[in-house]
Design brief:
311 residues, alpha+beta, Helix Hairpins, HSP40/DNAj peptide-binding domain, 25% strand
Length: 311
Amino acid sequence: MEYQDYYKVLGVERDAAQDEIKRAYRKLARRYHPDVSKEADAEACFKDIGEAYEVLKDPEKRAAYDQLGANWKDGQDFRPPPGWDQGFEFHGGGDAGRFSDFFESLFGRAGFGGAASHGRAAPMRGADTYARIMIDIEDAYQGTTRTLTLKQSETGPDGRPAVKERALNVRVPKGVRQGQHIRLSGQGGTGVGKGQAGDLYLEAEFRPHPFYTVNNKDVYLSLPLAPWEAALGATVTVPTPSGKVDVRVPPGSTAGSKLRLKGRGIPATEAGNFYVVLQIVLPPAEGESEKAAYHALSKAFEFSPRRHLGV
């Protein structure tokens, strides 16, 4: 995925005021509008301009985008670092299909559309807002309470987005899954007049774990085995997010085989499973006794690992 420099697309500096960004967008939009432009790449340019403006016109998305830093180059291979946007609130609504994979990787389905207009005198419900919250896999097994600092942006006197923070105590329910939304009623955008506040939706994202990977409700662990444990069978102790368990490895196990611990995945009405994926690790032959053991092993077996290749 290629990084997109939205400031370069609109031809403005990174410290440009909001009015300057708006003027640049309008000028470029008139130039490249497919209905009037004679440029060969007008449609693609018009789309890029619209995407850049969608981010830079919105204080929340612009502040989050700026957090990535100014060292990225346009077209450079890019992957957003885990948790890069934690705590930023984005307004929802809109159509994801008109924007690039780069945009969606940053803002997801929560990043479309702008804040609700506050120009009406009649009471209006505040906009729903969205943010990501990073949790540990263990939190999904037990449930927990987290103090979350959210960053909200507002346009300052100089036309630049200024970030302010607020803290919330959030109850992470037992059984929450990757990508699931936690709804906090009344914690979204402020209503107009006597309109009620919108809701805040927190999208749960698991921090990378050194042992476990998660697929929906199922959890996977890669378990190293010595060759004799795989060949002869063994009972080994295995860590899980809910505690250690003893697992019986059947004789003749092969690399890549899976052992299922039913119901030990993410808790739910029908809990997920915990899968132990077997990996066979060869001990190094560093000393003379280890080398002698390997030589004896080669003589004890009539074994050809390449027989299926016909060689």
